[in-house]
Write a structure and sequence with these properties.
Layout (H helix, E strand, L loop, with lengths): L1 H13 L7 H10 L6 E5 L6 H12 L1 E5 L6 E7 L7 H4 L3 E3 L6 H4 L9 E4 L6 H9 L5 E5 L6 H11 L4 E4 L6 H4 L4 E7 L20 H21 E11 L8 H10 L4 E3 L10 E2 L3 E2 L2 E2 L8 E3 L1 H4 L4 E8 L21 E2 L2 H15 L3 H8 L1 E6 L2 E6 H6 L7 E2 L1 E7 L2 E4 L1 H7 L7 E3 L5 H5 L4 E2 L10 E6 L5 E7 L3 E4 L7
Parallel strand pairs: 5-6, 5-8, 6-7, 8-9, 22-24
Antiparallel strand pairs: 1-3, 1-4, 2-3, 7-19, 9-15, 10-15, 11-14, 12-13, 14-15, 16-17, 17-18, 18-20, 20-21, 23-26, 24-25, 25-26
Helix pairs in contact: 9-10
């Protein structure tokens, strides 16, 4: 099996003999014997990344190194406990992500503090959570994926991360240019690709690709890029990225669009941000590329120690012609969501202030939200969606606040996970000896607390203040309300 994998790699690498030196080819080959370092990106919405990484490293025996181009990114060189098995990971305090995958979103230069963003091929959602973090959840993100089977993973990742200002949609990305011309401030096109990244992992083993496959992918990538540029505002930014180093899917795609629409956009030179990257290609085989393609980035594994990746930051300069068509339409009333009454909002605000010490109106203003209700469920809904996309069907939107029963809120796990660190009331601290059983999903019998059990919903924490989710305090136990999928 190892010999077969080695032969496939040698075949893939031969395509790059005209690009890489003999030494580089040897370095790339030797790299295949080394495991890919684990990368994590910290969630700045729910913790302080400057201190959180050192707390995590001490708690779980990690040896960490900073990722130089993104302040909240780290590689774990060794770990006594795997980063995929911690309560912090299950609570969305960090996302496991190869450093190369952090590059695309790091390129954006957001000028509008509340940008409209389209993530054209968003699932599984890692880069979407990066967009949420970069904008501090104050922009609005339309997180789209054309594959219905990939929507549940996207929803799970965004819910765990705690983002509010997003809606998940399931449409062909090629249609957005016609549906929403010059609408978005920023667009991420992490294009579907062959994954020919020359650094296989257990989740993405090496696979052979054919000329026909690369051509089919290229044709779709070109259409997606044109659509993205059409839906981008003039002076807006688009990042085109693939986890493939195949020039047919990278420089050739952008070159084709530049040829079709001269002067429509420029490729920004971002090489000064990186010490380990290589410029894009000037040509490959018989095809010569536009000189600006050398401003794009090629992340070769032997130079970065990460997966192979390609990305380019482009700025739209002039409009791109296209045919305007109407997007899918759904009367918002059919969602069943209705705005809560002023009296209900006042009651809700008073309860949140009394029970948890947080100010509902401050949250609504800071993140540009309204509270809407469907049956007995309350949701934070982004006002940007209601303003710009209210008739566009979505798969999921906003954040579940909780259930409204008997004129009181039963908060959701998502709400406590996202805002629990802000609670000045409504917290219960469990003993260190009880933490493992809590993380395992078991109730705490006869919790040591001075609180009077009244069936109240509380944020559970340990002695160092970690948010361990929500519990319900009953007369003889603290009921564990961690979601089953998170246990």
């Amino acid at each position: 099996m190892a010999e077969h994998t080695s032969n496939k790699f040698s075949t893939s690498l031969q395509r790059f003999e005209s690009i890489l030196t003999e030494n580089e080819m040897a370095e790339m080959t030797a790299l295949q014997e080394q495991p890919l370092p684990i990368g994590i990106r910290l969630n700045s919405l729910t913790s302080n990344p400057e201190t959180a990484i050192f707390d995590l490293a001490a708690r779980y025996g990690w040896q960490v190194q900073p990722i130089p181009f993104y302040e909240h990114g780290w590689t774990i060189q060794s770990a006594a406990q795997s980063p995929g098995t911690t309560i912090e990971h299950r609570m969305g305090r960090y996302y496991i992500q190869d450093g190369a995958s952090m590059v695309p979103v790091s390129l954006f230069e957001f000028k509008n503090p509340q940008p409209l963003i389209l993530d054209m091929a968003a699932s599984p959602g890692g880069k979407t959570t990066h967009l949420i973090d970069r904008t501090q959840d104050q922009g609005f993100i339309l997180a789209n994926d054309s594959s219905k089977s990939r929507i549940p993973a996207l929803r799970s990742v965004l819910t765990t991360w705690g983002g509010i200002n997003q809606a998940i949609t399931q449409f062909p990305g090629e249609s957005f240019g016609e549906w929403f011309p010059e609408t978005f401030d920023a667009i991420l096109l992490d294009a579907p690709c062959s994954m020919e990244n020359l650094r296989p992992t257990p989740n993405h083993p090496l696979r052979e690709t054919t000329t026909d496959e690369r051509t089919r992918l290229q044709n779709r990538q070109i259409q997606l890029l044109i659509s993205g540029l059409q839906s981008l505002k003039v002076d807006g930014q688009l990042v085109y990225a693939t986890c493939s180093l195949a020039p047919e899917e990278d420089e050739a795609v952008i070159n084709a669009v530049l040829t079709a629409y001269p002067h429509a956009f420029r490729i920004e030179d971002v090489s000064s941000k990186f010490t380990f990257s290589a410029n894009g290609l000037g040509q490959f085989e018989d095809e010569i590329f536009h000189p600006e393609l050398q401003h794009s980035l090629r992340l070769w594994p032997h130079r970065t120690g990460m997966s192979g990746f390609f990305c380019a930051l482009v700025t739209k300069q002039i409009s791109i012609p296209g045919t305007k068509t109407l997007p899918p339409n759904r009367d918002f009333a059919k969602t069943g969501l209705t705005l809560i009454s002023p009296e209900q909002q006042n009651t809700l605000a008073a309860q949140l202030a009394d029970d948890y010490g947080i100010d509902l109106n401050t949250i609504l203003q800071q993140f540009n939200l309204d509270v809407l209700q469907r049956n007995d469920m309350l949701f934070f809904i982004p006002l940007a969606y209601l303003k710009h996309f209210a008739s566009l069907p979505y798969e999921f939107i906003g954040l579940l606040l909780g259930k409204w029963l008997d004129n009181r809120l039963q908060p959701s796990h998502e709400f406590v996970s996202r805002f629990g660190q802000m609670f000045t009331n409504g917290r219960i601290v469990i003993n260190e000896s009880e933490v493992p059983q809590w993380i395992a999903g078991r109730d705490i019998r006869h919790p040591d607390t001075r609180l009077n059990p009244q069936g109240q919903y509380l944020m559970v924490s340990d002695a160092v203040g970690r948010n361990l989710g929500m519990g319900k305090l009953l007369s003889k136990r603290l009921r564990n309300l961690l979601p089953r999928k998170s246990i």
